Amino acid sequence: MESDTQAATHFIIRDRWIQLLLAMPAPKAAELTKTETGADRSASAVETAREPAYRSRWQARALIIEAQFEVVEVGIVVFEDEPLVNTVPPGASIAFGEVLPENMRLARKKTALDRSAVCKRELVLVSQGPPSKNPRPLARLRGDVASRAWIARSCPAR
User: Fold this and answer.
1) In a domain, 1, yes or no
2) Beta strand pairing status for 16-23 and 123-125?
3) Backbone CA torsion sign across 153, 22, 96, 98
4) Quick one: which of 35, 41, 67, 108 is 20 to 30 A from 51 by CA?
5) Could you give the number of structural domains in the chain?
């Protein structure tokens, strides 16, 4: 997916490819090209203004992901229901919030979270920024190295 106004975070957890889309400000958006008084910014000033705008969106996305893992951990929702809207179906490149009826039925049959299965998986953050054709892994979070990761809090002590 290539776009100047959209970025994505991809990760794999419990054999599911999850894609979270993130709206970014357009390169010509007034919040980047204009000052608070309405004057035009120079090209270098636009680049300087872009960084905090992107950073705040990525921080908000990180909070959302952390909150989703927290509600699963507490037991408010089951894992299978929480990221379903963002699940990329096998053989597809993207899912724009489409409900996958068969997966929903299967997910609702399972009421308890199989934490041992989660603990054996690794959470791989693939992309954090404007999308590229060949995303590179940013981090591999395992239960023993990522203290803030949900996997770490969910796994039994070793």
Assistant:
1) no
2) unpaired
3) positive
4) 67
5) 1
